[in-house]
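agent: user wants the structure for Exodeoxyribonuclease III from Aquamicrobium soli. delegating to structure tool.
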Amino acid sequence: MPATRIATFNVNGVNGRLPVLLKWLNESACDIVCLQELKTSDEKFPVDAIRDAGYSAIWPGQKSYNGVAILARDAVPVERRRGLPGDPGDTHSRYLEAEVNGLIVGCLYLPNGNPAPGRKFDYKLRWFDRLIGYGRSLLQEDAPVVLCGDYNVVPTPIDAVVSRRWLGGAVYFPESRQAYARMLGDGWIDAVRRTHPEKGVYTYWNFSFRGGYDRSSGLRMDHLLISPPLSDQLRGAGVDADVRGWEKPSDQAPAWIEIE
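agent: tool returned. relaying tokens verbatim.
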């Protein structure tokens, strides 16, 4: 059987970046795609255009902010969970989970946390704690799971072109990196880093006032974590970095893995 390609892509506004998304979907032929930062209400999600591109979709939107979606080609994602447990008052659309052809896929958009320290950073750490706790329950299922999305954390210095530029940012704060390390300590496998153990791989670049983007600002903060049952089935991983240079792009590029 051919490998299954699973991708995560922070689109930074699904309607405004729809031409980029549709072009990439056509060229990448991914089987499962997780989107973050939809920035649209449920009813304005471009489901017809995505269906015409060959994908079924489920999504919880949120006007102007957040929003996540799971797309599947030649399959229908069966929703398992909408929102993380642990805080009934949290109304942000940041987590969605589905089963696709026997694979459990969690799509997440972790809070950025800036300005840090402060209230938003405290929320980020609380959300991270909830994710860690829920992630442990997923691991206990001993099932094939991919937990992917925009984690808004740069795990190590190799994950930034110039790490010192980000010392004051929430994505690089020690607490953020320690929380990510706790997930790996629980048994989650960073599939991109497993595939490229010593290579600088980046998924985010600042917008440039002169047009294009600032390549020296590269960060890796979009991650695909896989559960131990998938460890021996990982066949490849990478980033479609060229998408960042397309017309009217997101500030992030799709990251992907291939599972046997």
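agent: one observation worth passing along. The first strand starts at residue 4 and ends at 10.
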